[in-house]
Write a structure and sequence with these properties.
With 356 residues, this protein is of the alpha/beta class. The chain contains 16 helices and eight strands. 36% of the residues are buried.
């Protein structure tokens, strides 16, 4: 069993859509890096788009709304063009579509791989469909024992992957195990839906999570092109950088204005880039010539002598696709087509689960 499998489970098996659509590889793991690579199988995209379009509907539209559209479609047609009427249920903002699709994909994938449950689909609570929703991108629970483990995810989309996309994920889940911020919200929603027992257990779970009594697994998900995995593998995945006396002494030997750097000593910088940017500002203020070049030359020296930490329960999952922007558009377009042409074939689904 790989370190990835211990934390997020096995890649789904046939006939699951993820097995049909994607090949996977769990790369050799270390204390600081656990990485699962997902790549598309040839000729399987249309199959995937069809399933993902249904997931987009599921994640965005409540079951009561689906029933309303099924029952009132004829009456709506009398007043409006139905395709225009249903447009408002999905964002038309391409940036938001990309972020939302990442959340949908990683949620559905990790539900299948881990066997954990998602008690609510948070995209349905976004009051402005064209803006990204704040909070945990995904949070999953063990339906049999809430306190056995909780999984949260930070998801990013990039047309072209880069160092910054990895660091944005690390800002959220790097350096140390991250506490989910949505548990109380989910508890409140369950209470309003009449799931009082579950609501009470979630409220207790939030306390245990704060006190680090319940195991937490963090997932960083990067949806991008076929080069996505290389950017994770090329990154050290450390976070929480602090400038030490040793680092300052070493920088003094290579010409840095160290007396000015002492102001940074002990401060926590979530990522390496945050620290380097702070050093650069000091060099510019001190009128050091070619400050950016000086930092680039001695970047490895700074990294070596800084205090830093890693999140031992962080698993990166990268999904590399050809033309990822086209893929996003195709999925949302197909979801719209299903609502317009095939709404009566949809099965309204309840998003709450009762603990057995």
């Amino acid at each position: 069993m790989t370190e990835q499998e211990k934390r997020i489970g096995n890649h789904p098996s046939p006939p699951d859509i993820f097995a049909e659509w994607l090949i996977h590889e769990d790369l050799p793991a270390s204390v600081i890096k656990k990485h699962r690579v997902l790549l598309e199988r040839d000729g399987k995209r249309l199959l995937a788009v069809e399933q993902i379009a249904h997931w987009i509907i599921d994640h965005h539209i409540e079951e009561e709304t689906v029933r309303f559209l099924q029952q009132e479609k004829v009456n709506i047609y009398r007043k409006y063009a139905f395709d225009e009427y249903v447009k408002g249920y999905f964002t038309v903002n391409e940036t938001t579509q990309k972020g939302n699709l990442g959340e949908v994909l990683v949620s559905e994938y990790l539900k299948k791989s881990s066997g954990l449950l998602m008690f609510i689909f948070r995209l349905r609570y976004n009051q402005n469909a064209d803006q990204s929703l704040k909070g945990d991108d995904m949070i999953l629970f063990d339906g049999n024992d809430l306190k056995s483990r909780v999984m949260i995810c930070e998801s990013k989309f990039r047309k072209i992957p880069d160092h910054a996309s990895v660091e944005e994920i690390l800002e959220s889940v790097g350096g140390e195990v991250r506490f989910p911020i949505s548990v109380h919200f989910i508890s409140q929603r369950m209470r309003k839906l009449g799931q009082v027992k579950l609501a009470n257990e979630l409220a207790e779970l939030a306390i245990d999570l704060r006190n680090k009594k319940t195991p937490m697994i963090n997932v960083g998900f990067l949806l991008s092109n076929q080069n996505a995995a290389n950017h994770v593998e090329g990154h050290h995945l450390h976070a929480n950088f602090k400038l030490t006396d040793m680092a300052i002494s070493e920088l003094d030997l290579v010409g840095f204005p160290t007396k000015d750097l002492f102001g940074l000593k002990g401060r926590n910088f979530k990522t390496e880039s945050n620290l380097l940017d702070a050093i650069k500002k000091i060099l510019i203020k001190a009128k050091v010539k070619d400050a950016g070049d000086l930092i680039s030359i001695h970047k490895d020296l700074i990294y070596k002598h800084c205090d830093k930490s890693t999140n031992p329960e962080l698993v990166f999952v990268t999904l590399g696709l050809k033309d990822p922007e086209v893929f996003v558009r195709d999925c949302f377009q197909r979801a719209h087509e299903i609502l317009v042409n095939d709404v009566n074939t949809l099965l309204p689904i309840s998003w709450t689960y009762s603990l057995l």
